[in-house]
Amino acid sequence: MYDIAIIGAGVVGGMIARELSKYNLSLCIIEKESDVAMGASKANSGIIHAGYDAKCGSLKAILNVKGSRMMKQITEELGVKYKNNGSLVIGYNEEDMSAISELYKRGKNNGVEKLEIIDKVKLKQLEPNISEKAIGALFAPTGAIVCPYDLTVAAIGNAMDNGAVLKLEFKVKSINLSDGYYEILSDKERIQAKYIINAAGLFADEVAGMVGDNSFKIHPRRGEYLILDKEFGGLAKHTIFRVPSKTGKGILVSSTVDGNLLLGPTSEDISDKEDKSTTQMGMSKVINGALDNVPDIPLRSVITSFCGLRAVGDRGDFIIEKSKTNFINVAGIESPGLSASPAIALYVIELLKKMDITLTPKNHYYPNRKIYEPDKSKYGKIICRCEHISEYEIVKAIHTNPGATNVDAVKRRTRSGMGRCQGGFCMPHVVEILARELNMDFEKITKFGRNSKITIGKTKVMS
Amino acid sequence: MKKIDLVIIGGGPAGMAAAVSAYNNGIKNILILEREDSLGGILQQCIHNGFGLHKFKEEFTGPEYAWKYEKQVLDLNIPYQLNTMVIDISADKAVTFTGEHGGSQTVQAKAVILAMGCRERSRGALNIAGTRPAGIFTAGTAQRFVNIMGYMPGKRIVILGSGDIGLIMARRMTLEGAKVEAVCELLPYSSGLTRNIVQCLNDFDIPLKLSHTVVKIHGKERVTGVTIAKVDQNRKPIAETEEYIACDTLLLSVGLIPENELAKSAGIELDLVTGGAVVNQNRETSQIGIFACGNVLHVHDLVDFVSEEAELAGIAAAKYISESVKREENRIIFHLSEGISYIVPHRINSDQNDVILYFRVANVFKNVIIIVRDNEKVLFKTRKQRVMPGEMERIRLTADMLRSIKGDTVYIELEHVN
Fold it and tell me: How many angstroms away from the CA of A446 is the closest CA of chain B?
């Protein structure tokens, strides 16, 4: 019997788990996929927003500004890359500039520091590659970037270091309340917990429905991205936005913490919560939108494209509240969810405190991750040529909480396969290392769990 | 800092041939740095035959061809280090690398030969729409799984791109019991060698769909199929021609890119068309004492010419190290007419020896005359029934011809005849 079960191992579930692991509680994180950070947390812009976008007084506004202030320290504790690159909202006409002045006012009211409206001259100084057509911008020096999946892996790993249990490939089928505790069932397993925190992302409405709470709906909003070679990360010194529209903040151009150039996302409401396919039209939109802001982007150097699905709630704000007995919903966490995630965790603790649960801090809490240290002299060989990732780093990723069990999980933890050749050279080696370290058959190694097997069996000679 | 006369980066066919040739020209203090766990480079996974016809007048498999050179490296005791990755070369030829036992090391070289080969263009570079399931491989990665590791990447295959590795893999997968549904080629012609189209596709009744591309990838966990479509003259898919092919694997053979990140770090001038360094007839780059040969310089279709080119680089590096003569000014540059996409070498600064020009045409042409001229004076002329981008052209300019050249620009032209 766990004290608390957290459903969903995304950045929100992860941050909550880490915060709760500071207390004397038994925790279980449940995730339907084969790894953590498999939903929106692995496919988003990685921006720590300053906090000028959301409506004053909304949870989005309050938690964004607070979370963004917490982010630097958290990333330091977790050993996650963070870069305070600042962000710019570019104006191209008077209409844009009046929207920008609204954003400025809203930001001030939300408590965003150091906001400034700048003219073309200053904009050109800050961002030399910006379009000649730009006439001014909102400059938010507190804007920053992180790697969202790295942050999620680290937060959950650290929660595990502090005693939390992670159950992967546990797809919740039903939840029953009996004798003051919940029974959570998948096809294969059951666990019991006194409290449930529903951080199931796109599926949070379905999970809430399992306890009879049908008070909200979540729908997927597709966002497509393109990533360019590291050679061109320097094209954008800041995160460059257009003036936001109803459906989002438009196509941004930003460097990533790892030095690539990121373009996207589109914003398209769809119906299938599992449709993460990119589209020709989406990719063209990304390209055109990005070129409007930064005309010299070398599209020849695109190394990959991907798609993420935002979990959009139907209330216009984050849904973070007590639901049925001992059940908390943390739902509709679309942008600025990543930025807000540390503050969301604190907010959830406050909700729990109002419930019948005792939170006593642990005597021994480790704010830093416990890293498995393989023998460097044994594993010095470089496996990923493009990103210069050694076998040491791959073995480390397999054995450090939460351990990588498939090729994509290794990729997200080490960047092996994320470079310009996209795994062409390193992937067979990574499969070999996974099979060896996990003592598994080569042909059982997957790309991302379940039936995503890399190879289907032996060749004639081998079998 | 340890001093080494000649550091060769890459122990594939180019690196080994360059090492042997430098050694035979008097340089003994050599170090070959190879990132894989054996010498031979990509040849080790090319277990089909067809290698060596030009060079040895005999057909070898890839590993056999590699062994021809590996044996010489071993017999001559040329030092090499495996599982070693070069991470930086400075313009003054300090080479930093890291080995299998960790930690990095820097050596000072008098000369460097770049022989890192090339990599395959990936799915991401093509922006193919759809999902990102398991079962999408570059042809070379699949070749490694099958030929080196002994595992099958799938059993129902669609291949996009008709580059040589894709063609070879179409046959290889068929021989292993897989069904190759189709090979789609965006262009109206294949970029592979004619003999590969005949021996790898036609002989196995595998359809080659020219002017076709993959427009969407389907499948959540493993690939379940691809949508292909015919493309128009601008290579844009025609919607009405879309066709779904069920498959569990998509192999990509859509181009090779010289791996020149190290050349960039050494500040070497690159040719935007080849993706390799700009070189003179000695295969010396814009940085004095740094040479390049093989697929890192320009992608070859036959390893025989890689060896030939590497020998030139080896001789030149040896000469550079032992004579330390000042590099002569470039005497000749080339002007390419429309229809010729690139030429190697880019410059000539000596008329002491014959120079072989390697170049590729930009399209398939029938009945052309290739003309090399010095202003009005024709130096060389040859008629070809057919030229194609997939097959490199070679022309020898003799030392006598070079000495006769008055201008500083030599024109390479294609004349179309009926």
Answer: 8
Q: How far apart are CA B19 and CA B30, in angstroms?
A: 7
> Above 80 in pLDDT, residue B42?
yes
CATH 3.30.9.10 describes domain A82-144+219-308: yes
Nearest to A452 among B125, B134, B146 (CB): B134
Q: Which long-range contacts (CB under 8 A, 24 or more apart) does B83-87 make?
A: B83/A381, B83/B34, B83/B35, B83/B36, B83/B37, B84/B33, B84/B34, B84/B35, B85/A381, B85/A382, B85/A385, B85/A388, B85/B33, B85/B35, B86/B9, B86/B33, B86/B35, B86/B262, B87/A388
| Any A CB within 8 A of B141 CB | yes
Write down the domain spans for chain A.
Answer: 82-144+219-308, 376-456
Q: Are B101 and A380 inside 8 Å of each other by CB?
A: yes
Beta carbons of A309 and A222 less than 8 angstroms apart? yes
| CATH annotation of A376-456 | 1.10.10
Handedness of CA B195, B200, B202, B206 (dihedral sign): negative
- Annotated active-site positions of A, please? 49
Among the partner residues A302, A428, A457, nearest to B144 by beta-carbon distance: A428
Q: Is residue A246's pLDDT more than 90?
A: no
Which residues, in sequence order, are CB contacts of B56 under 8 Å at separation 6+?
B68
What is the residue type of B66? A
Per-residue pLDDT tens for A270-307? Answer: 999 999 999 999 999 999 999 999 999 999 899 999 99
Contact predicate A407/A426, CB 8 Å = no
Closest residue in chain B to residue A300, using alpha carbons only: B125
**Helix residue ranges, H only, A111-144:** 120-126
In DSSP terms, which residues pair with A446 in a beta bridge?
Answer: A453
The pTM assigned to this predicted structure is 0.96
Answer yes or no: is pLDDT of B26 > 90: yes
The answer to whether the CB of A218 falls within 8 A of the CB of A311 is yes
Please provide the average confidence, as pLDDT, over all residues in chain A. Answer: 96
